[in-house]
């Protein structure tokens, strides 16, 4: 499972938002289904969050813009869902979620997550 995780992270690091989006969708499926994959993911959560949410201003999401916006939305929703499903068993997930929510100003409104400010920073 470690090799699969490394491969997914390799593609998440590409400078193309559509590649990152597709890679994140694979990661999300594996995260939902595998304890071992969750452990690998959470050991490197800060890097993952930076690559898929665009919350690190020094490393904005790559183009194309439409895919980057979709990646941001899907990743924030997935991370919120992970926290709801698995947060009680993974303290590092709760910490990561709370960091994104309170320190990086990610906010929840009903079934949607987005930045309180600069939601479309790629314009």
What does this 3D model show about the protein?
- The chain is mainly alpha-helical and 123 residues long.
- It is 66% helix and 7% strand.
- The protein is globular, with a radius of gyration of 13 Å.
- The protein contains 6 helices and 2 strands, in the order ααααααββ.
- The protein has one domain (2-115).
Shape: globular
Mean of residue pLDDT? 87
Fraction of residues in H or I helices: 55-70%
Question: What is the number of strand segments?
Answer: 2
SSE order, as H and E?
Answer: HHHHHHEE
Specify the structural class.
mainly alpha
End-to-end distance, in Å?
A: 37 Å
Ordered list of secondary-structure elements with their pairings:
Blueprint: H1 2-12, H2 17-33, H3 35-43, H4 45-53, H5 65-86, H6 91-103, E1 106-109, E2 112-115
Antiparallel strand pairs: 1-2
Please give a handful of descriptors for the protein shown.
123 residues; mainly alpha; two-stranded antiparallel ribbon; 6 helices
Give a quick rundown of the structure.
The chain has 123 residues and is mostly helical.
């Amino acid at each position: 499972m470690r090799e699969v995780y490394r491969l997914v992270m390799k593609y998440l690091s590409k400078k193309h938002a559509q590649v990152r989006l597709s890679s994140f969708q694979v990661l999300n499926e594996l995260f939902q289904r595998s304890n071992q994959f969750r452990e690998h993911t959470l050991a490197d959560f800060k890097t993952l969050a930076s690559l898929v949410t665009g919350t690190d201003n020094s490393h904005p999401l790559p183009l194309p813009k439409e895919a980057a916006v979709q990646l941001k939305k899907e990743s924030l929703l997935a991370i919120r869902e992970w926290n709801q499903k698995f947060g009680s068993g993974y303290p590092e997930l709760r910490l990561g979620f709370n960091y994104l929510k309170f320190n990086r100003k990610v906010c929840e409104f009903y079934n949607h997550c987005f930045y309180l400010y600069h939601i479309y920073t790629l314009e």
